[in-house]
Amino acid sequence: MDDKTKQKQDELIEMVTAFCDDNLNDEYCDLAIKLVEKMGRKHNVPFKRGRLDIWASAVIYCLAQNNFLFDKQSKYYISADTI
Asked: Measured between alpha carbons, how far is 53 from 15 in angstroms, rounded to an integer?
């Protein structure tokens, strides 16, 4: 991974970590970091293009959707507007 991609990955991890610290728990934070790192290992790194804030939102949104966080009965309920 080149330096520019590594820098973008680090910034993206900072963004998702800050959001998880404010709204979710450590487990979701770990999942978000793993997802960002997994994307960084791709041959064509997806977050090289586009705005990092949108990528951070996409990572959190995917985790929320797959872990039923949009369900109001969930312990860590979060709305899409919050993301």
From this structure: 7
User: Would you say residue 21 lies in a domain?
Assistant: yes
How far is the C-alpha of 75 from the C-alpha of 10, rounded, in Å?
A: 29
What does the alpha-carbon distance between residue 16 and residue 18 come to, in Å, rounded to a whole number? Answer: 5
pTM over 0.90? The answer is: no
In a domain, 71, yes or no: no
Burial of 76 (0-12, 13-18, 19+ CB in 10 A): middle
Q: Is the dihedral of CA 51, 55, 61, 64 positive or negative?
A: negative
Single-letter code of the amino acid located at 25: N
Query: Rounded to whole angstroms, how far apart are CA atoms 58 and 60?
Result: 5
Q: Structural domain of residue 48, as residue ranges?
A: 3-66
Per-residue confidence band for 61, with pLDDT thresholds at 50, 70 and 90: very high
